[in-house]
Write a structure and sequence with these properties.
By secondary structure, this protein is an alpha/beta fold. It is built from 5 helices and 4 strands. Strand 1, helix 2 and strand 2 form a beta-alpha-beta unit.
Length: 204
C-alpha cells in the first residue's frame, strides 16, 4: 500500500493523532532515532526527509543524539535534525540508562550538553537507571542544568558563550553558566540530607 516504511509510519501516526483529537503531547519515535542509525547522515537520510515532510506538525519526534547513548549533544547536530524533521526534536536522553548493562549504575552529574540547547528542543526526557534510588543525582543535576538554561534564555546576551564554552565546563559560579561539578556537590548535599531524614523515620 505504501511506497516506503517512512510513509507508512507517518500515515498511521497522523491518523492516530487526529483520531485522538490532536493532543498537545503526541510523540513519535522514528526508526532512525540517532545519527548513527542514519544513512549516510541525518540531513541526507531519505527516511527522515519523508518523516519531516509527511508527519503532521503537531507531532513531536524523539531523538537520542549522535548515538543511542550520547555522551555529548551539540547545537550544530540539533540544527541539522531540526532542519530535516521540520520541527525541534524531543531529546530522549539515555545518558543514565543502564537497562543494557544492569551491573553498572551511573551516579555522575548531568553533563556533555552544550549551553543554550533548550531553545533548540521541543522537550527533553531522561531515561534513568533502573534502580530508583540511584537517580537522585541524575535528576537533581538535570534540574540544576534546566535552571541554568532558563537563566540563559532570560539573558540572550549570554548566547555567544556557546561558541567558547567547552562541554562539561567546570567553571560556572562566576558567570552563571552550568557547572557539572557544582551541580554534583549540590546534589550530594541534598541527597545526604534526604538519607539522614529517612534514617530518622520510624521503622527505618
Amino acid at each position: 500500500v505504501f511506497p516506503s516504511l517512512a510513509q507508512a509510519q507517518a500515515s498511521v501516526a497522523n491518523e492516530v493523532y487526529q483520531e485522538l483529537g490532536q493532543p498537545s503531547v503526541f510523540l513519535f519515535c522514528p526508526t532512525e532515532y540517532c545519527s548513527s542509525l542514519c544513512s549516510p547522515s541525518p540531513s541526507q537520510s531519505c527516511y527522515l526527509q519523508t518523516i519531516g515532510q509527511e508527519l503532521l506538525p503537531g507531532i513531536g519526534v524523539i531523538w537520542t543524539g549522535p548515538k543511542v547513548v550520547s555522551q555529548e549533544l551539540s547545537a550544530l547536530l540539533l540544527e541539522e535534525v531540526e532542519a530535516v524533521l521540520r520541527r525541534r526534536p524531543v531529546i530522549w536522553d539515555n545518558l543514565y540508562a543502564n537497562d543494557y548493562d544492569c551491573r553498572r549504575v551511573f551516579l555522575g552529574p548531568y553533563m556533555g550538553r552544550a549551553p543554550g540547547l533548550m531553545s533548540r528542543l521541543h522537550g527533553l526526557l531522561l531515561n534513568p537507571n533502573c534502580e530508583l534510588q540511584a537517580n537522585f543525582i541524575p535528576i537533581h543535576t538535570l534540574g540544576t542544568w534546566f535552571r541554568s538554561e532558563l537563566g540563559s534564555c532570560a539573558h540572550p546576551d549570554h548566547a555567544g558563550k556557546e561558541a567558547v564554552a567547552a562541554l562539561g565546563d567546570s567553571q560556572g559560579a562566576q558567570d552563571g553558566s552550568y557547572s557539572p561539578q557544582e551541580a554534583l556537590e549540590l546534589a550530594l548535599h541534598d541527597w545526604v540530607a534526604e538519607i539522614n531524614q529517612q534514617a530518622l523515620e520510624p521503622g527505618r
